[in-house]
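Q: What would this chain look like folded?
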Amino acid sequence: MLSIALLHYPCMDKNGEEVTTAITNLDLHDLARVCLTYGIDKLYIVHPYQVQRDFAEKIMAHWRTGYGGRYNPLRKKAFEVIRLAESIDEIKADDNPLIVVTSARGLNNAISWADLKNWVNKDNICLVFGTGWGLADRFLEKADAVVEPIDAGTGYNHLSVRSAVSIAIDRLLGR
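A: My prediction, written as structure tokens:
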């Protein structure tokens, strides 16, 4: 089983400083839709600040129970996969998954996408993506595994998180 988590802390900024990033409307919409498309029923949006989770909840309520859901039932269905969490510990308490993290940086001992696909077929996996300029090293070090970067051979791999999630899910669950 595969779930996805979008982590907003601890992340890095372009100067290598540890930061907390903001939840964006586009991430909620696009990631929920890709998860629903591939049959993933849990997309965790992880943020330590209640005000940010409240912001996400307000958007989600518009699509789940408000006018948005009546206007666009398909979007309503997509938003039903989103779960809000304060920390990765909530995800562990909810499902007890193996925590596999992504990074655009090549890290030692990274597993291949093919290996991760095999894990997904037999284990409970939460694939964690960072925002900003990626997950902080201290978070990467605590993960059960790190998957290799998405690499198209161009030397450029600074994808938006929405693109990275889409590519990763297709590599793991696509035909």
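The longest helix spans residues 50-64.
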